[in-house]
Amino acid sequence: MHRTATFPALEDGAPEAELVRRARARDEAALRTIMQANNRRLYRLARGILRSDSEAEDVVQETYVRAFTNLDGFRGESSLSTWLSRIAINEALGRVRSRKPQVELGSVPEATLEAQIIQFPLSSAASDPEKSMAQREIQRVVEHAVDELPDVFRMVFIARVMEGMSMEVTAELLGVKPETVKTRLHRARAMLRENVEKKIGPVVMDAFPFAGRRCERLTEAVLKRLGGA
Questions:
Q1: What 3-state DSSP class applies to 106?
Q2: 49: closest CA among 110, 96, 97?
Q3: Which residues, 6+ apart, have CB-to-CB distance to 48 below 8 Å?
Q4: Residues 19-76: pLDDT tens digits?
Q5: Mean pLDDT, residues 140-144
Q6: How far apart are CA 148 and CA 170, in angstroms?
Q7: How far is CA 76 from CA 13, 79, 163, in A?
Q8: Backbone angle region of 191, left / alpha / beta, with phi > 0 → left and psi within -120 to 50 → alpha
Q9: Dihedral of CA 66/15/56/167: which sign?
């Protein structure tokens, strides 16, 4: 799967090059279009490094300020989305290094371990508060498990699985070989599955709840049948 940031067309369906040209001239519509197309990706990448919502938001803002004031430095050798992503990663890494010594993203030994991430089925939880609560709890468990992955594995997982970047784009972004991306992704999936399975036990104890609307519905149905007996 390979998703790239796609820019909503301006009034004349402007391509990326035209968007960049307009952004250099501080065209508000172009700036807004670029940000809307990249906000989620930059936030996820920054948060993957910092593991802090507020710091990730700060990084995204700083990324755009730096990018939009230095658009002359964008040569089109990679996509605008990749260029912005690299700025966000460097900004986030800079913040980590200012706090404490940190291993570089490219310096962890490779490991090969095949595994599949647990898939959680989606359902229409809007009409069922119990399901909605359970799904939020599962989402929380998965988010924490992702946060606990070592940096190099977490970044590959976010780029490849959460953002759907190709092997080649991920490798370019993180400064490693595509083969390294592949092995780290396998390892990340294995570690994530192990972390989730350890934490999911207390959650599944509350699975298939028989309370709330379900309990009320059954009670009323029984009473109705008894009343007609």
A1: coil
A2: 96
A3: 146, 154, 155, 158
A4: 999 999 998 988 999 999 999 999 999 998 888 888 999 999 999 999 998 998 898 8
A5: 83
A6: 20
A7: 19, 6, 21
A8: alpha
A9: negative
List C-alpha distances in Å: 125 to 50, 72, 143.
Answer: 31, 47, 19
Query: Are 152 and 108 in contact, with CB atoms under 8 Å apart?
Result: yes
Q: Quote the pTM value.
A: 0.63
The number of residues making up the chain comes to 229
Q: How far apart are CA 149 and CA 187, in angstroms?
A: 10
DSSP state at residue 109: P
| CA separation, residue 98 to residues 57, 92, 147, 172 (Å) | 18, 10, 20, 24
Contact 57, 65 (CB under 8 A): no
Mapped onto helix, strand or coil, the DSSP state of residue 25 is coil
Q: Give yes or no for a contact between 176 and 210, defined as CB atoms under 8 angstroms apart.
A: no
Q: Are 198 and 35 in contact (CB under 8 A)?
A: no
Residue 106 near residue 93, CB atoms below 8 Å: no
Share of the chain above pLDDT 90, in %: 33
Q: Residue 18 corresponds to which tokens in the numbers above? A: 């035209």
Place of tokens 């990249």: 38
